[in-house]
Design a protein that fits this description.
Layout: H1 5-10, H2 18-27, E1 32-34, E2 39-41, E3 49-55, E4 58-63, E5 69-75, E6 80-81, E7 94-97, E8 101-107, H3 108-117, H4 119-145, H5 148-166, E9 173-174, H6 180-187, H7 191-203, E10 207-210, E11 213-216, H8 219-226, H9 248-253
Antiparallel strand pairs: 1-8, 2-7, 3-6, 3-8, 4-5, 4-7, 9-11, 10-11
């Protein structure tokens, strides 16, 4: 079992070499703990760091001109946070902890080092970033083109699928870890409207709810109602270059 949280995620798609594991271990050497509600990144603040989410759940969001919040992504262990720091000197979005969380910070030069020493690993990170971009595109398209019920159903399926990748034994019953306000800020709905849509999904026997836990009763119907596509499935990384045989990190550990 890899010690790097990010290595576990990458291991879903490629078989990592010892040299690649060593470099990923370097990225996760430092840890920072945040309590629920704590800000990791503030929008427009100067930033030179990226982060790996090691434990917990976080969200990225922007504040609109009218003061409302638009949640862009829910973040889970193994996700890279603040990738925009590679292109901008100031944060393009804010990041806050949705639960007690642990992140591993690393600076931008580490990505340069990774690109030079392990180009296959760097290419895989770029590919995963594109997977997340496509998932975000789905969310944005849903905001303008799908019903309120579809948007709420899609969030439930998205969170369930991400939690299932962390815990493959997870069934159809899970705790989303989100308030109705947070679901609303991700779907462009009020908390009251979210509550109404959840009750409608219950009334239609697609889900059941009890004490913060959601159970999916009829996944095919729920997926159709949501127009949902699991963007983490069907990924093709066969184009990646061959792994480097050795890196500076590996040489140092010999």
């Amino acid at each position: 079992m890899p010690s790097s949280c990010f290595a576990e995620r990458l291991g879903e798609y490629i078989v990592l070499t010892e040299a690649e594991h060593a470099l990923l271990d370097c990225i996760e050497e430092r840890e920072r703990t945040l309590r629920r509600g704590a800000a990791l990144v503030r929008e427009k603040d100067a930033t030179t760091e990226l982060f790996i989410l090691k434990r917990g759940m976080m969200m990225s969001f922007v504040i609109l001109d009218d003061g409302s919040r638009q949640i862009l992504q829910f973040l889970f262990p193994g996700d890279i946070i603040a990738m925009s720091a590679l292109a901008y000197s100031r944060a393009r979005e804010a990041v806050t902890a949705l639960s007690d969380s642990v992140v591993c910070p690393f600076d931008r030069p580490m990505m340069s080092r990774l690109a030079c020493e392990q180009p296959r690993l760097f290419a895989a990170i770029v590919a995963i970033d594109q997977i997340e971009r496509v998932a975000l595109t789905d969310r944005l398209a849903g905001l303008g083109r799908t019903s309120a019920k579809a948007r709420v159903a899609a969030i439930l399926l998205e969170v369930r699928d991400r939690l299932r990748r962390i815990d493959p034994a997870l069934g159809d019953s899970f705790v989303p870890g989100l308030t109705q306000e947070e679901i609303g800020d991700a779907t462009g709905l009020t908390a009251v409207h979210v509550n109404r849509m959840l009750r409608q999904l219950e009334d239609e026997k697609m889900i059941a709810r009890e004490s913060g836990r959601v159970t999916i009763l009829d996944e095919p119907r729920l997926a159709r109602a949501a127009n949902y596509v699991d963007r983490m499935a069907g990924i093709d990384l066969s184009w990646l270059p061959a792994a480097a045989t050795i890196s500076a990190v590996a040489r140092q550990t010999e």
